[in-house]
UniProtKB/TrEMBL annotation:
This is Universal stress protein. It comes from Kaistella daneshvariae. It holds the Pfam family Usp. Residues 3-142 form the UspA domain. It comes from the Bacteria. Belongs to the universal stress protein A family.
Length: 144
């Protein structure tokens, strides 16, 4: 079976991205491997006493993200498409590429908001990074 990596960030565009990935997976008879990369510093905050770590904040955030991943996975499976998911903390680009390698994936599916180059300069673009660094094809779905 062909593994298709689908990174999700739970933004407003996630549903459209999942729809596009499901269409692609149906055409290839592929499996969708969902991944959400949570920041490594999720439970840290800065205040009057400097950096502080709040493990309960991190645990609650991770728990919510896992629930969202489970919901997406069940939605995809309900459409007759094989699916699995992973939530991992780390650097998004590195973590996604490592997951693609571990799964021997044939494709990575990403979304593009079609923002200007100025946006990329200030915010960065994971899709742009992965299209440059990936050794496997990256399918970019326009999200407008």
């Amino acid at each position: 079976m062909i593994n298709i990596i689908l990174p999700v960030d739970f933004s407003d565009a996630t549903d459209r991205l999942v729809d596009g990935a499901m269409k692609f997976a149906r055409e290839l008879n592929g499996r969708i491997c969902l991944i959400h990369v949570a920041p490594a510093d999720i439970g840290f905050a800065i205040g009057d006493m400097g950096f502080q770590y709040f493990p309960e904040v991190e645990q609650n955030e991770i728990k919510q993200e896992l629930l969202q991943l489970n919901t997406l996975e069940q939605r995809i499976i309900a459409q007759g498409i094989d699916c699995e998911h992973l939530l991992k903390q780390g650097v998004s680009g590195d973590t996604i590429l490592e997951y693609a390698k571990d799964k021997a994936a044939a494709y990575i599916v990403m979304g593009s908001h079609g923002r200007s180059n100025m946006y990329d300069v200030f915010v960065g673009s994971l899709t742009k990074e992965l299209t440059r660094r990936s050794h496997i094809p990256v399918l970019v779905i326009p999200i407008h």
